[in-house]
Amino acid sequence: MAEELFRMEGICKSFPGVKALDNVSFSVNKGEVHGLVGENGAGKSTLMKIMSGVYRADAGRIFIEGEEVKITSVAKAQELGVAIIHQELNLCPHLSVADNIFLGRPPTKSGLISDRQMHKEAKRVLEELGIDLNTYTPVRNLSVAQQQMVEIAKAISLNSRILVLDEPTSALTEKEIDQLFDIIRNLQKKGVGMVYISHRMEELDEICERVTVLRDGQYIGTRNYKDITVDELVHMIVGRPLEDKYPVYERKIGDVVFEARNIRRKDVVNVDRITVRRGEILGIAGLMGSGRTEIARCIFGADKADNKELHMEGKPIRVNNPRQAIANGIGYATEDRKYDGLALGLDVQYNINMAHLKDLSNFGFIDDKKARENALKFKELLGIKTPSLRQRVLYLSGGNQQKIVLAKWLVNNCKVLIVDEPTRGIDVGAKYEVYELFNRLSDQGVAIIMISSDLPELLGMSDRILVVHEGTINGELDAKKTTQEEILYLAAGYNKVEKKAQ
Predict the structure, then answer these.
(1) Mean pLDDT within 85-111
(2) Which of 78, 202, 308, 384 has its CA at a distance of 20 to 30 angstroms from the CA of residue 324?
(3) What is the Rg, in whole angstroms, of the alpha carbon atoms belonging to the chain?
(4) Global confidence as pTM
(5) Reported confidence tier of residue 336, pLDDT bands at 50, 70, 90
(6) Burial 61-93 (b: 16+ CB within 10 A, else e)
């Protein structure tokens, strides 16, 4: 029998206008990796914030090794051995690896910080986890995966027995994911219990023993992962079967609406020509670091290009900055919605109208009535779930935040919409809604350039796929006739695939 380490019973939590959790129970055994899944807004983050002391439950009980405890703060959770690794890493980039591991509690000798002892202890913790890092390296010089390892080392240095990993692989390569899984298995051997939050089913299959599903703040069930199929799990998550992951759709593709030629930026971007037709979805594939995002940023004017020639509807346009891009009918939903896609501290209404304020202003003052009408229209059109238009975007689920990013550009009636990783970090139900939205936009004649690391997504939604390698277009494929293997071959720099889409 597995030995229970942590248990939550009958947890309830409400916010103004929203019941986030309703009688939810959850447990973790020693040395177990327990998957926690559900659509965005299902209550996963709220439950974990109660577990780690960020929120207090309105009702319910928490037990650690059979003894009831009160988790009243983050400090109390840490004292009890509970730690959380957030999707947005919480490190000081200018400090060293060792400084970050022992931040706020450095080893001291005779009342003074013992730098030597701190680096010695940091090295010991890293070696125990099988992590090879120089403890003197500033965190800003590390990759995302290495920074994540520092966060884990920091948690283990606090003698954490229960570790929550929130979407830990969202920005990692396959090799880095394998390294992370090695660390997780190492922690399992030490008896650490882990909660693994992820939308990636293949990862749950590889690393989790049990999986618990939440939906609309309620507990749906817990299953042994080996005893459940993906279809059954998806049905538990969304409450309905998803017959197809991608909507079956025939697009009416028109003439070329946008053309970019001779895009050059130092050694990062070297593209001869990109075209996209009215009503078309043009997929852009490539490995991490291939230059996909850099191409988009050059087109949009977010990064200065050494050279580029842009044409909209056959006429040359000048785009030296995002303001000119917007004026010429180009929208850009960025890869990191929280960092540069949204104003998280401001409300839904402002965020939807953010790229449209000039047209809502009279003598420098925003017409609040028009802004509200705009926001209400797109809230209903996209099915954005929010208690009110005045709700701060910070408190909405990832899926609803992504819809707001898209609404921001739809308000502008853009002719070309660039979307970078449009479904990253959102659940299967919300993904389907985004795909249906793209199809509706296609009907309206909007040309979509979709950058994605999700190859099935590219194959399921694109009409053509451009494959990027080291800043250049290494191939063009017909999405209906190609395979993941062909895309990966071109992404790796080979050009064996000769056939191009017409």
Answers:
(1) 85
(2) 384
(3) 24
(4) 0.61
(5) confident
(6) ebebeeeebebeeeeebbebbbbbbbbeeebee
Cβ–Cβ < 8 Å for 449, 284: yes
- Main-chain phi, psi angles of 91, to 5 degrees: -125, 160
How open is the CA angle 137-141-142, to the nearest 5 degrees? 90
**What is the per-residue pLDDT across 377-414, written as a single tens digit (0 to 9) for each?**
888 877 788 888 898 888 887 778 888 888 888 777 78
Q: Is the pLDDT of residue 217 over 60?
A: yes
Task: Report residue 112's pLDDT band, with 50, 70 and 90 as the boundaries.
Answer: confident
> How many Å apart are CA 179 and CA 88, to the nearest integer?
19
* Mean pLDDT, rounded, for 464-469: 94
User: Position of tokens 């070696």?
Assistant: 127
Tokens linked to 2: 């597995």
Q: Which two tokens stand for residue 301?
A: 């004017």
Tally of helices (H runs) and strands (E runs) in the chain: 17, 24
The owner of tokens 């071109």 is: 490
Tens digit of pLDDT for each residue in 135-183?
999 999 988 778 888 888 888 888 889 999 888 876 677 777 888 888 8
Q: Rounded to whole angstroms, how far apart are CA atoms 334 and 421?
A: 8
pLDDT of the residue at 499? 42
Domains of the chain: 4-238 (3.40.50.300), 244-329+414-502 (3.40.50.300), 337-413 (no CATH)
Distance (Å, whole) CA 459 – CA 485: 12
- How far, in Å, CA of 379 to CA of 411, rounded? 11
DSSP 8-state assignment for residue 96: B
Contact 20/213 with Cβ under 8 angstroms? no
For 158-268, strand residue ranges (E) read 162-166, 193-197, 210-215, 218-224, 256-265
Helices (H), 80-143: 97-101, 115-128
Encoding tokens for residue 358? 């000039």
d(CA 502, CA 61) in angstroms, rounded, equals: 62
